[in-house]
Amino acid sequence: MSLPLDREEIQHLTEELEVVIAAHLGWFKQINRTLVCANQVNKADLAEDAHLRSPFGQWYYNSDPNPLRENLDFQALGATQQAMHAATRLALLEVLDKRRPEADLYDQCIDLALRLNTMLRRVQLDIIGELLSTDSLTGCATRRGMLPRLREEQERSLRIQRPCCLCLLDFDHFKRVNDERGHPAGDAVLRQSLRFVTSVLRKYDSIYRYGGEEFLICLPGSPMKDALVVLERIRAGLERLPIRLPNGESLFVSASFGLAEMHARRPVEEAIADADMALIRAKENGRNRIEIWTQP
Length: 296
Hints:
Largest sheet: 5 strands, mixed
Shape: elongated
Radius of gyration: 27 Å
Number of domains: 2
CATH superfamily of the largest domain: Reverse transcriptase/Diguanylate cyclase domain
Oligomer: single chain
Helix content: 55-70%
CATH class of the largest domain: Alpha Beta
Structural class: alpha+beta
């Protein structure tokens, strides 16, 4: 699942789903008590639009934009919930007529309610996975799930016969910023710099926090010359970007870049290692520059 949301919005969505799940379980408990104990029937559960009136329905069919609308697991919830209410309506009509619902009908109600709960939990776990896959400081993806995504880009590159480049970006003298100005200043550098970097990247590019002040950029469908254009725009923009520090001062930083092509017949890990070697060369050759890995 990939959601066009920042970390706080994903966190809010996770909490919202927890409330929906709790409300559904409360409804399920009440229905089960009615079917088993022949308690008073809630007339709202007999209505043709009961699926719209239930706590889940009020959330699911709300007209407000929902970032989950395009998710297939989310879309499947509706059919299960409507089938659950249809079965529940038949069972409740039996209760109203002072009859016990048939065992098969009762089982159908219970099974559908439990299935809906399981499906909701699956969606919630997917969202939690999205939360864990996002770096809280920079908003970039983390290394969790990075390699499978890069392998997908590698397969796509082979399929469309277009190259894919990887780049490792490392901020120059970052340790000095932390040592001399404190970790809040270092956090400001990363947060503001990566906001700029992501604004330059194209919508189909991706960026991962690889470790500390090091970031991996994937540039699909890009031959080396096109990748260089993107990276040079980032490099030049970073050195001119004033970083606003917590104490009100401004700081300018630079970064070094190691660029390599991801070949279809070689492991992704080798392309990352190639980019790392190019990055080391950029550091050795004066920093604030882009170096391309070439076969020795």
